[in-house]
Amino acid sequence: MTTREPYSLRACCGSYKAWNDTSVWLFHAPCRRGQFTCRYVLSENEKDQAPQVECHRCTVPGPVRRFGVDTGLFFVLYYLYVWLVLDPRLIAHAIGIITPYYPFSFTAGWPFFMEHLAEPGGATDYAARYLTALYAVGWLGALIVTAAAWSLCLGIDLMTGLAGRPRGMLVRYVPAVLMLVVYNGHGHPVKAVLPLLVALLFFALYLRMAAGTAARASLLLTAICTVAYYVAGAGSLLLPVLAVIHELLITRRKLVALTALLSGLAVPWLLGIAVFDLPWTNAYGGSLIRASGGISTWTGRCCVGLYLLFPAVLAGATACRVLSARRASRDSGRASPGTRALWMPAISHFFSWGESRWIMKVAAVWLSAGAVVWFTSDPGYRIVLQMDYYCAHEMWPEVLEAADRMPRGSYNARCNQNMMLALCHTGRVGDEMFRYPQRMADDSFRMRSMAKDPHTYLQASRYFWGTGQVNQAELCAYESLLMTGDLPWILHHLALINIVKDRPEAAKVFLKALSKKPLHGRVATEMLRSLEEDPRLEGDARLRQIRRFMPKDDTAPLAVNYEEDLAACVEKNPDNEIALNFLMAYYLRTANPEKVVENLRYFDDQKSGSLPRHYQEAIVVYLTGHAGGAPSLESRVAPETRMRGSAFLELLAGTSNPEEALEKAVEAGFGDSYFFYHIFGASGL
Amino acid sequence: MTRKLRRGISIIVAATILIGALTAWWRPQPDVKAASAVPRLPKISPDYAGITIPPNIAPLNFMVCEQGRRFFVRLACETGDSIEVFSDTPKILIPAKRWRTLLGANRGKELRVTVYTEVGDKWQQYEPIVNRIAHDEIDGYIAYRLIEPVHARWHEIAVKQRDLTSYRETEILNGIDLGESCVNCHSFAANDPKRMSIAMRSEQYGSATILAFDGEVKKLQARFGYTAWHPSGQAAAYSVNQVAQFYHSAAPEVRDVIDVDSALAYYLVGTEDVKLVPAAADKRRLETYPAWSPDGRYLYYCSAPMLWDDQREVPPARFAEVKYDLMRVGYDLAADRWGEPETVLSSQETNLSILEPRISPDGRFLLFCMCRYGCFPAYQPTSDLYMMDLDTRRHARLDINSEFSESWHSWSSNGRWIAFSSKRRAEPFTRCYLSFVDDSGKAYKPFVLPQYDPEFYDSFLKTVSVPELITGPVPVTNKTLAAAARSDQVIGVDAITGATRPVGGLPMRE
Known about the structure:
The complex is a heterodimer of chains A (685) and B (510).
Chain A: E1 15-19, E2 21-30, E3 37-43, H1 44-48, H2 69-86, H3 88-94, H4 110-117, H5 122-134, H6 138-162, H7 174-184, H8 190-209, H9 214-232, H10 238-250, H11 254-275, H12 280-283, H13 286-291, H14 298-331, H15 339-350, H16 358-376, H17 379-392, H18 396-404, H19 413-426, H20 429-432, H21 454-467, H22 470-484, H23 488-500, H24 504-515, H25 521-533, H26 541-549, H27 562-572, H28 577-589, H29 593-598, H30 613-625, H31 631-634, H32 639-653, H33 658-667, H34 674-680
Antiparallel strand pairs in A: 1-2, 2-3
Helix pairs in contact in A: 2-6, 3-17, 4-5, 5-8, 6-7, 6-8, 6-14, 7-14, 7-16, 8-9, 8-10, 9-11, 10-11, 10-14, 17-18, 17-19, 18-19, 19-21, 19-28, 21-22, 22-23, 23-24, 24-25, 27-28
Chain B: H1 3-25, E1 36-38, E2 44-45, E3 52-53, E4 62-64, E5 70-76, E6 83-87, E7 91-92, H2 96-104, E8 110-119, E9 122-126, E10 129-133, E11 141-147, E12 157-163, E13 169-174, E14 182-189, E15 192-202, E16 206-213, E17 216-220, E18 227-229, E19 235-247, E20 255-268, E21 273-276, E22 285-292, E23 298-305, E24 325-332, E25 337-345, H3 347-350, E26 353-359, E27 365-371, E28 384-389, E29 394-397, E30 406-411, E31 417-426, E32 429-436, E33 447-448, E34 463-470, H4 478-486, E35 501-502
Parallel strand pairs in B: 1-9, 3-10, 19-35
Antiparallel strand pairs in B: 2-4, 4-7, 5-6, 5-8, 8-9, 8-10, 11-12, 11-34, 12-13, 14-15, 15-16, 16-17, 18-19, 19-20, 20-21, 22-23, 23-24, 24-25, 26-27, 27-28, 28-29, 30-31, 31-32, 32-33
């Protein structure tokens, strides 16, 4: 792992310079590439022994661990976790639901780009928006997250190296783990992380060029701070902070430190407030915190932590180094070191990457990171997002698959609506509806009862769209658009709605807007081409069908009456399967077997047992209450369904109270049946 | 790497960059003399063919919607150097300075736009598009409202102004600065940007009207609806509307709006009083859309009988029967005295609802909308623009209408130009159009407000409505207006206010 190649400072033709007192020395030497000046704080003792230290600005072989297998493995695992567990597609999908979408909306083209160049931080903002759009491709999103984490890790190495500490200290993994914590909380810190990386980059650039007189370094620093502020906005203020610490504690150039401090205060004022007319809160960092969702949010707190970590590491490591050097100097004159002198080096040794016990240390670090990640993860909500994501992409079987994995207690109205959409679109309502939790009180697709986020409106729009109620679908889709912004799937949906409504020009506007979204250009362009050839897209069977299901007679005001609207849809178009599925689901859910039976006329097949299971169960329940019911109905129930109905009734008769009945029914496997739901008002148990 | 080698590489890199830059910059002029003729006009977007243009308008950049590998366009007039644009893409961007010079030197003359396309190795020449450059300039600025296609909720509503001689757009007031408030009903006294009012509706800062008069900004407690400033700038007539929005189940336009109740009031600047217009505050009628005659002696407005007793029923059963008449009432500002109302044009005569009257600055013409029913032409596909000669009281439908909704029109200060909103390009997106009006009141083929990027409207998801031509930029900054709007210092007036109430369908706003 490590290269033991002694690196003698004496060979570097450097010079020692006493630093404040005679026991601490500052060593200036050109590194082996001859480009930089390395400065090390050394004790008197180290100076005499020609200490083996690493040149932290270049990769001169030294006795200290370089980027090794442990780091590589850590980031490979990191990448896999982000890709396969966190799933960047869900991170992207959560934007607009958990975090606002407007700050992440991206549009290709010069106007959008130029708009961003017209304000400080616009460049990183633009990059953040673009990168966010790429999260829609899982592996690519994971790569972006991992690259950012790895860059932050290098940033910590830079800090520790500056302080004369070896690179590869444990703290280097903290930013990466913090990022995971944010992502586990469904945050999206890219708008905070990118400016931070830019600040670190400019700080490294400054270090490369800062040699020379204090005046030159001051000028250079001011210039770099200005450029960094223009590129990264308030996030770049980390740069002057680091420069102050570096110049005060390491190089001891008070003039430069003062310049850094003044730059940090003056540049935002001059560039941000005076030139670009920003509010002072934005000029000095408010926008950065707001971009993370505010300081009160978990993401915001973690981002602030990330920003504080770097100066803390630089200051801490420098202070630690100076203190240990002074102590070593004092201890060298004493015969027997005290207890403190014994444990301090031991701890210090453990936390630095020495050769010994490194595997143990790696394991400890990884376990800690794993524990943090484990405790902050929220797998239940991740499945909720998965269902949403699959629903937005009309991946109906996947919605149901995700619903099967849903932990008890995480199920909510949002999941139910996704699941009902999936069941109706896959035609599995009659067979599987009660496998999933259903509650009689639930009121699907009524806007009033829904949480206000774009996806709930989109769910409603998809419901109306599927059943052919196009004007209502349009209304909900516009609400979704207005609430969130130009999310690609909303644009696509609105384009389809306008095509069905014979407004190809409006559809083209949405498709042109969609074509400017990264990764959606091809689909949009193909649709535009098709529209040019056929403005009605008559070749698309689905659109043709919806156009046929659309109501022809206008009524106003448009009022939502779930049952009546669906019944009207089915009445006019008995082959409107989705509307029929929703209608039957409604009657099943409201425990209305009479209506289920009444609407069985829409199911042609009279063969015994061919009806979906729940409809047969509803017939059994109906016949129980209507002795001597129609023989034609009885013939449509399979013998095993009748037997199960009898068994359920016997089970109920054999119990003394409802609680006991419920328990026994669940034990007997009736929890997923209409029999059970009809009696207990719940299912999926 | 030796110094020599490094120098060699540097020279090669520099030479490559130089050659690349030269290649990109210098193109041989296409030889179009031998171009074969195509006997028809070329298709261009936006449609800038056969129009009359103001001599001070920004360049009308356009897309050539014809097949071709390369494109060449020549803009020529009777005098001055022609402008030639050669492009590898169908996007034709006209140099602004030369455009201004050419138009300035050829007022009242023709502008011929000849389009050439290179198909294969041969150039094709289309018949020239002939536009006319008007003598009369259009006002330098236009103020309009930018808003998403709002149904029940909104995100950002902004009133913006655009320099018509360039493409520069600036903000007058943005609702985002007021916590996602609604800002609308901007109105100017006689096209004067120094005398302006904007209504606002905010949960946080209340409903009010912002007045910006000669640099002084005030916040009035009364929220002005549709507003018309007296030409003297000493009074403003405005409507107070109890608006209800509802939705259609199968109509092409989902949205509809009805005034359940409305009346006209007026605000006197000197005394800061608000009063009802006696003749236009009938409890059994709906009055709206005030418009002053240029001499300030008459207030024109629209009035319809209220066909319902219960104002809570939304929409009322007979909402589709509501048709507004065009009325006017005399007014003496000095004495603050109103005359008797008279009918200018009856809906019984037209069998259509008459809305949004606007009188030309010379007082000769009255431009208005008519649609099948109701009070909100922007949501009525049947809404068209009509012109009435006020001397003869004869009116006629303008040729500039489309099968889609036309509404929200305004006159330029010289009465030679009108701006209006239309959905002709891509319903439901409203765009702003400009049209020349001659001495006889004839309106010429309109053209869409030009943008630097000719593809701008193709993906623009906002609507541009209520365009008001103004003679210059609003001198008060958006920050000042926003600060006034947020201010607690409100001039209290005894006002009648109304609020939009979305009803029926999907009541999202709970």
